[in-house]
Amino acid sequence: MNINIKRVLIVFVILITMSVLWTVYQMSPPEGTAERVFVIRENSNLNTISKHLKDKEFIKSSFLFSVYATVTGKQSKIVRGEHTIKQGKGYNDILQDLSTLENETEAIEVIVSEGLTVLEIADRLNKLGIVDRKQFLHAAKSWDTLTEKQQEKLGVNKEVKKSNTKFAVEGLLFPDTYYFEKNMKDDEVIHQMTERLLHETSKITIKTDQTPYEMLTLASIIEKEALLNEEKRKIAGVFENRLKEGKKLQSCSTVQYLLERPKATLRRKDLKIKSPYNTYLNKGLPPGPISNPDLASIKAAANPEKHDYYYFVAKQDGTWSHFFSKTYKEHRKYTQLSGNY
Question: Which residue windows are transmembrane per the record (predicted)?
Answer without folding.
Answer: 7-25
